[in-house]
Amino acid sequence: MPNLLAMSFEGALSPAFDLRFLHPGADRPDGWGLGFYRPGEPSVTVLREPAPTHASSQAELVRRSEHGESAMFVLHVRTALWGALSDANTQPFSRAWGGREWLFAHSGSLDRRPELSADPLFEPVGATDSEVIFCDLLNRFVSRRWRSLGEADPNVLADWLAGINALGTLNIVLTDGRDLLGYADRHESGLFTWQLAPPYENLSVRDRDVEVSLTQNGAKSRKGIFVSSRPLEVLGDGAQQWAPIPAGGLWVVRQGALRAEVKPPGPSPEREDPLRTPSRLNRPVKGEVKRLEVFHRTVYRYAQPVERSMHLFRLTPIHDRAQTVLQHSLNVSVEGQAREYDDAFGNRVRRLRVDRPFTEMVIEARSRVELLDTDPLAFRPLRARSSFPLVWMPWQRNQLAPYLLPPELPESELTDLTDYAMTFVIRNDYDLFDTLLDVNASIFKEYQYVQGSTTLATTPFQVYATRRGVCQDFSNLFICMMRLLGVPARYMCGYVYTGPKNRNHPQSEASHAWVQVYLPEVGWCGFDPTNGILTQTDHVRVACGRTYSDATPTSGAIFVGGGPEHLEVLVQVEICD
Prior knowledge:
Elements: E1 4-13, E2 16-19, E3 31-36, E4 45-50, H1 57-63, E5 70-78, E6 93-97, E7 100-107, H2 129-144, H3 154-165, E8 171-175, E9 179-183, E10 192-196, E11 203-206, E12 210-213, E13 224-228, E14 233-236, E15 243-244, E16 250-254, E17 257-262, E18 290-313, E19 323-332, E20 337-342, E21 348-354, E22 358-371, H4 394-400, H5 411-427, H6 432-446, E23 448-449, H7 460-466, E24 468-469, H8 471-484, E25 489-496, E26 512-519, E27 523-528, E28 533-534, E29 539-545, H9 548-551, E30 554-561, E31 565-575
Parallel strand pairs: 23-24
Antiparallel strand pairs: 1-5, 1-13, 2-12, 3-4, 3-5, 6-7, 7-8, 8-9, 9-16, 10-13, 10-15, 11-12, 11-14, 16-17, 18-21, 18-22, 18-30, 18-31, 19-22, 20-21, 25-26, 25-29, 26-27, 27-28
Helix pairs in contact: 5-6, 5-8, 7-8
């Protein structure tokens, strides 16, 4: 049986725990305990039983998930080596420090106990070596004036634990309800991790003694990280991919994502981690001024002649301080009454009314653009730090209102998306820019780019639930999440240069979509979740709006004729001298 199992999720779940070691005929342990934090609560709830019976009322409680929802769970099953079978000796142990309750569990046994510092603030009440370790660690936190795991230096923590590890076997988890620390014994790793990635509808993990169902009470597409003293069998939609924490290694996890890792001395293989979210995501480096040449060709063919029609073309790049249009031409193979104007969003639009029949229309736009947005954050004061919630003056809110209204979706779906968005806010200590970087990077890493998997009618919630789509879908999801958080966001359509740095063949054959977010004291700043980058001098902006319909390159209406339509699009973006 795993005598240690910890779980961190990106949002609250209510898993069902079936403690199979309490079934009739099973070998009973010397005790068990389950600790968890209710959403928004700094205090921990611990259910524990020393010397449990088969007819355990608390085991039935956790089996039926009546413990409630939480984003953090720690389960410990005891095999007694130190101390009597009592509550005081049954893990996980809890203590209050820094305005929060901490939880600790240990798998293993020390050959001798560590010595506590003189006049310690924390002392054990039981007789186990595990509780002594817990108290020793908290006393060290006090001496450093670290009031949370987030304030602690992971390298210092690893050094502390390596010293304790010299006294015997040490596999531990420690949490303050926000962050989860896991340390694997330096002699032979006794901790394994499993990274849970949505979507899933039926999922559980088990061995002969314990089973945890994540979906018995409904799936919520939460990602998460499991830390266990032994691999468990994965049933349902999940992949069986347990991996050990390297011996002597340390992980820090928050909201289902790896925040920090301390590797043991010596070489270790590098591996790509889709659920990794560094504690400080990288800011963009200063780019180079670029001149790009864009050719966009669209061909409409119809089975029957179109007699009367109206067309709108948004194919003229934006001209402003960050982007200079050096040359532009737009040619249409069909003649008609044309006029140009700027729409309500500042986009240059050509309106064409055609009253003569045609079966083919060819639209060709050629542009040469100089991109100057080399450092989009350069003019932001270094002292400035924006955090959630954002506060807007009444006139600002009025001006930004079109970009603050989320799409019309069922309230239950908007609630789930709000909860999802808030996990990024919490994971990044309510910092606005770190949250934006995290959302941008997470969509890039965790969502699949699959052409043809969605339509124009696909909603942000459907993208969130399936974790797949194209650039338009990822942008719509990003925009929806930001607006639910009170951050103005708009849809941007244009082109992206996919040179050696960002090879993406499908994008080179069509226009591209990304997001602009309005940041205090910065203005509109571009995020490209499809490529996981901030927009600088690889993106040519053409049109913006609330949604795709405000910024679509070509649109219109056929009044008479037409029939079945065939569309061809070719886009080429190249560096020019």
